[in-house]
Structures are given as structure tokens and as C-alpha cells.
Amino acid sequence: MEIKGKAGVITGGSSGIGRATAERLAKEGAAIVVADLDEAGGAETVKHIESAGGRAVFVKADVTKLEDARRMLDTAVSKFGRLDILHNNAGIGVGAPGFPDAPPERWHLVIEIDLQAVILGTGLAAPLMQKNGGGVIINTASMAGLYPHRQDAVYGAAKGGVVNFTHSLASWSAERKIRVNCICPGIVDTPLVRRGLELAQQHGIKSWMPSKIIQPEEIADAVVTLVRDDSLFGCSLEVRPTGRQIVDPRPAPGSRR
Q: Active-site residue among 155, 165, 172, 233?
């Protein structure tokens, strides 16, 4: 997809991966709706984009709520005339104390934000994208969705659901002209990760921060790759400190599975 002239919605756009992706897509020429509950952070993201000559608006939205999710997507159409890109990026972890010691309400919230909101946003975005001939949806999953995640099993379960959900929509590329992919980062240097580390240390949990950590801008670069490359659909893009790798679950031509 040619990014210039398109419009996108980024959830969790007030900081971290969401902010880096919003700024990068705006730099490439897309108009951006920054969606988040953090009004101050969202306004700062918009300010960064506009000061660099880009176009952006902020929408306060709880991605788990139907009306909020609908409003953030409709804003792209009302403000910029179209919806071409959706980055389902908002996410949280259970944090310390972890499962099963954390309150069940916390487990449920992780599933609601990290998985159910991805399903909701994708379902609402599809008909809006089809009006303009298609689009691209990128879901932020995690390496924790591909491999066992001892530190936060509920988070890993949610992200595993995102990976499978993404792979299951590979057929949308032909059926709806909508490519759905997910990105699976390792540990990224974001405010959420830093707060989680501090909380873990307060509970006497040994630091799990690696010596080399991924920067949000590296994830933004990977998102742009998935948006731009029309040959990629139903794939996971792993991002590690050592590099990136495409994980494609589709059978090779001529194979049987």
C-alpha cells in the first residue's frame, strides 16, 4: 500500500509503540487518529505530528467499549474522508503480583484490552475499509504469543489469541481486499514496560529486563513494512534485538496441510 494520502487509526497512541508508529506513518504521509484514554499523552503525540508537518487528531477512547471503538474509527472518515490503516496496539499486562495472585478483575481486563478489543476494532474497521477498496490491519501481538511466557501467562494467552486471530483472517486479503498481519515484539522500551519492571521489583521479583532492549521506533519501522508490502497477509513479524523474521503460517504452494 502507498501510505501517502491514506488515513489510519492507532490505538494506544499516547506513548511507546503507538506514538512511534503514529509519528512514523504521519511522516510517510498518512493522516492519523490517535486513540487512547490518556488525553495528555495523546495531545502530545498529535503535537509532535503536527509540528513535523503532518495531520493528526486525538480521540479519547476505551477500546473495549463498542461506542468508543466505533467513534474512533468513524473519526478517520469524518476528519480525513477515509479509513485505510488500523493498528490495534493498545495493551496491558497483569503485572505484579501475577497470575493467580492478582485479582480476577485484572486478568479479565488483560483479555478484554489485549484480545477482545482487537477483535472488536477489526470487525468494525472492515466495512469502512471496504468502502475505499480495502485496507491494512496490523495487530500488536508479542513473542509471548508464540512461546510460553512464564512471567505473565494471561498476557501470553491473550497475545496467542491475537496471533491465531490474525492468521485466521489471511483469506480477507482475497475476499475483502484487507490484509491483516500482526507484529510480535520482544521486550520493548516503553513506559508500560518500565512501570511493570518497577512494580515487579517492589514485589521482590527479579528483573527480567534484557541487556539489549528493542526501541519503539524499531517496531514502527516493522509496522510500516507490513503496511507497505502488499504480498504480506496473515503473517506474524517477529521483532527481536537481533533482527526481524517473518513467520508465515500459510502452506507453501503445492503443499497439503
A: 155
Per-residue pLDDT of the chain (257 residues), as tens digits, is 999 999 999 999 999 999 999 999 999 999 999 999 999 999 999 999 999 999 999 999 999 999 999 999 999 999 999 999 999 999 998 877 888 989 999 999 999 999 999 999 999 999 999 999 999 999 999 988 898 878 889 999 999 999 999 999 999 999 999 999 999 997 766 666 666 566 656 656 665 565 678 889 999 999 999 999 999 999 999 998 877 888 877 654 443 43
What's the topology of domain 7-247? Answer: Rossmann fold (3.40.50)
The answer to whether the CB of 162 falls within 8 A of the CB of 182 is yes
Active site residue 155: yes
In this prediction the pTM is: 0.89
Which residues, 6+ apart, have CB-to-CB distance to 86 below 8 Å?
8, 9, 73, 121, 122, 125, 129, 135, 136, 137, 138
Q: Which of 26, 8, 24, 23 is nearest to 75 (CA)?
A: 8
Contacts of 77 (CB under 8 A, 6+ apart): 7, 83, 128
HEC-encoded secondary structure of 174-236: HHCCEEEEEEEECCECCHHHHHHHHHHHHCCCCCCCCCCCECHHHHHHHHHHHHHCCCCCCCE
